[in-house]
Specification:
The protein is α+β, with helices and mostly antiparallel strands. Among the domains are: 35 residues; 122 residues, Beta-Lactamase (2-Layer Sandwich), CATH 3.30.450.20; 154 residues, Heat Shock Protein 90 (2-Layer Sandwich), CATH 3.30.565. It contains 11 helices and 12 strands. It catalyses: ATP + protein L-histidine = ADP + protein N-phospho-L-histidine.
């Protein structure tokens, strides 16, 4: 029993593996078929079929409608003619006394003439179902048993079309003018071959016209689809040219307005990539330079001490103080770089809590007041309303600290810094305005770049690393906020920060 169970399990595993193998084989076949039918997803093929169908379907419908209209109109006209001729013959039969004398030559001649005109057969039947006249001369004197004739004697006219045998059969009652009694029936049977023949010829000509038009439309659609897709093909070639490394060339594609818009957007993206690459290269260069400068200074100071003999303790102390300052500067650059790296990480590392922004600003100002007092800068705080928002307290505090500290450091003697807080239903706003030296207009687009300094000598004199505003911008953007600057040289600078009250992940 155990052996049987083992074999059953093995068989189940083998069958499962076979099923997986078959499924993989089927998927592989479908994948190959899909690859071979790639052209079905082509824009040119879709536009070709769309143009072809738009051109052909109306013509096809018009042709079909025209033939149907002709057939129905021709049949209706023939029916009206027959009814009119039947009424005339009924009056002639009554007025000539044909029911008393069926041998009247003038009447029989007229019946034959009408039958020949319409390529048909006419039977005159009296009220007892006797056939008084058959234009074919076959049924004269016989009795006719016909449902249509009997109904007509009862006052019910009928008309019947036999499309298979190409004839129309109708009954016309012969009614007495005064008594209104039905004296007999005219049974008419007429061919519709001429109508069908004309319809067939029209159908043939319409088919030739339709095929000719369809071919012309297809040729036009083929060439127009090529013209339609050519700008996209050129755009693809241009993008391929860019991927080969020719980043300095602009994408120029003539064609439809939308293609030009795509081309312009691509050029803007390309310009953005170039700026990012330039910024990256400048960043690497600046990082290397900024980290190298303090080390170079330390090496120069240390070499100066080593090369001198019998150096006084005072000189040792002076050099060591300078070395300590350079080490502190190097440490500050590294710390700012680490802060920037942390801020560059994904927003999933945001530690969002609901805090009172008024208290946060007061805490930041409390830490910076000694620096402002040292530089004789008046620090003013205006809060228009209580604001509670969902933010990362550490990152937002770092951003606001950098803004206010810069306003203090790059100010004029006996200047002022005004910090204000306001809010609406969706955002809170922090404005940092100062009476400082201002920022040149041509430099305002670059002040958030890493290591960018408007005045490098003054920045190093104030201990700046060129990373503060970049850190601030990153922190604000991580909160889905925005920061703007307005400044004039020698008139001061105003930074405006807008941050959503409710954090949006």
């Amino acid at each position: 029993m155990y052996t049987f169970v083992v074999y059953a399990k093995r068989l189940k595993i083998i069958l499962a593996s076979q099923n997986i193998y078959i499924q993989n084989g089927v998927l592989a076949i479908f994948s190959k078929i899909k690859e071979k039918l790639w052209f079905l997803k082509s824009m040119r093929v879709h536009s070709l079929f769309a143009l072809f169908l738009i051109g052909v379907l109306p013509i096809l419908f018009f042709t079909w409608e025209m033939l149907n209209t002709y057939n129905s109109t021709a049949f209706e006209q023939r029916k009206n003619d027959l009814q009119s001729q039947g009424s005339s013959m009924a009056n002639l039969l009554l007025s000539s006394g044909y029911f008393s004398d069926p041998s009247i030559e003038e009447v029989n001649t007229e019946l034959l003439r009408i039958a020949n005109i319409y390529d048909g057969r006419i039977l005159v039947v009296d009220s007892k179902l006797n056939i008084l006249k058959d234009t074919y001369g076959i049924e004269d004197g016989n009795i006719i048993i016909s449902e249509d004739v009997i109904k007509c004697l009862q006052g019910i006219n009928s008309i019947r079309q036999d499309k298979e045998n190409n004839f129309v059969e109708m009954t016309v009652p012969i009614t007495h003018n005064t008594s209104k009694d039905i004296m007999g029936v005219i049974l008419m049977n007429f061919s519709t071959k001429n109508i069908n023949s004309v319809s067939s010829k029209l159908s043939q000509k319409a088919s030739v016209l339709f095929l000719t038009t369809a071919i012309l439309i297809f040729v036009y659609a083929f060439f127009y689809s090529g013209v339609f897709t050519k700008p996209f093909i050129n755009l693809k070639k241009a993008i391929g040219h860019l991927t080969e490394g020719y980043m300095d060339e602009e994408v120029k594609v003539d064609g439809f307005y939308e293609v030009k818009q795509i081309s312009n957007s691509l050029n803007q993206m390309l310009l953005r990539i170039k700026n990012l690459e330039r910024s990256r290269q400048e960043f690497v260069s600046n990082v290397s330079h900024e980290l190298k400068t303090p080390i170079t200074s330390i090496k120069v100071l240390a070499d100066s001490l080593i090369m001198q003999e019998n150096v006084p303790p005072e000189l040792y102390r002076e050099f060591l103080v300078d070395i300590t300052e350079e080490i502190e500067r190097e440490n500050k650059i590294i710390n700012d770089l680490l802060s920037l790296v942390k801020l560059d990480k994904t927003a999933s590392e945001m530690n969002i809590t609901s805090i009172k922004i008024n208290d946060l600003l007061e805490l930041v100002l409390k830490r910076l007041r000694p620096i402002a007092k040292k530089n004789n800068i008046e620090l003013i705080y205006e809060s228009f309303r209580p604001v509670i928002a969902e933010v990362d307290e550490v990152k937002l505090s770092l951003a606001l600290s950098n803004l206010i500290e810069n306003a203090i450091k790059y100010n004029v003697e006996d200047g002022w810094v005004r910090v204000s807080l306001n809010a609406d239903h969706k955002y809170f706003y922090v404005k940092v305005a100062d009476s400082g030296i201002g920022i040149p207009e041509d430099a305002q687009d670059f002040i958030f770049d890493r290591f960018y300094r408007v005045d490098k000598a003054r920045s190093r004199g104030t201990g700046g690393t060129g990373l503060g505003l970049s850190i601030t911008k990153n922190a604000i953007h991580m909160h889905k906020g925005a920061i703007k600057v307005y400044s004039k040289e020698n008139e001061g600078t105003t930074f405006t920060v807008r941050v959503p009250i409710n954090y949006i992940a």
